[in-house]
Amino acid sequence: MNILYLHGLGSKLNEAKRVRLQKYGKVFAPNIDYHNIPNAIEWVLGKYADTKFGAVIGSSMGGFAGYYISNSLNVPALLFNPALKTRSTFQQIPENTGDSSSLKQLVIGQRDPAVNPAETLDFLGEHLNRGTDLYLHLRPEMEHQVPLDCFEQELKTFFKRL
């Protein structure tokens, strides 16, 4: 299976998480400069236009992009602290991302100081397709950074659902 991993703002996929992801398939993890590429979603879709993905995984700003890419490609998504409602840098939301009902597993750190958990839940209430197979895991101990053990647990749960 091809897996698209989208990192957060000013971040990248670290080797420990890449190793965990590779247990489930071939990992594609583009470096995205969200500050200088205001249409990152379209940029990623264009870059991988000929690649069929089985899953999209994203964190923070990558979770935001992953939400819309998942909808556009109609593939399942695992999103960690996705910046769905507000972001610190402008990003265009393409009109062609559709309203997919593909599976979404969101992992939200309740102590996240960067992405407000209440705003994420508010966004979901306003925008989620009612046919979406949604799994929501609120983690009271988690802040913005996703600890490796949490990442691994959520990957295991996500890929069992596919």
Q: What would the keywords be for this entry?
A:
162 residues; alpha/beta; Rossmann fold; 6-stranded parallel sheet; 5 helices; 33% helix
Shape type: globular
Q: Under the CATH scheme, which architecture would be assigned? A: 3-Layer(aba) Sandwich
Task: State the major sheet.
Answer: 6 strands, parallel
Alpha plus pi helix count? 5
Number of domains: 1
Record field, number of beta strands: 6
pLDDT averaged residue by residue: 95
CATH superfamily: Alpha/Beta hydrolase fold, catalytic domain
Determine the structural class based on helices, strands and strand pairing: alpha/beta
**What's the CATH topology label?**
Rossmann fold
Using the coordinates above, name the CATH class: Alpha Beta
> CA-to-CA gap between the ends?
11 Å
Protein name: Esterase
Organism: Salegentibacter flavus
Describe this structure in words.
By secondary structure, the protein is an alpha/beta fold. It has a single domain (2-161), classed as 3-Layer(aba) Sandwich (Rossmann fold), CATH 3.40.50.1820. Helices cover 33% and strands 18% of the residues. It has helices at 15-22, 40-47, 61-73, 117-127, 148-161; strands at residues 2-6, 26-28, 55-59, 77-80, 104-109, 134-139. A six-stranded parallel sheet has the order 2-1-3-4-5-6, sandwiched between helices. The longest helix has 14 residues, at 148-161.
Summed up:
It comes from Salegentibacter flavus. The protein is an alpha/beta fold.
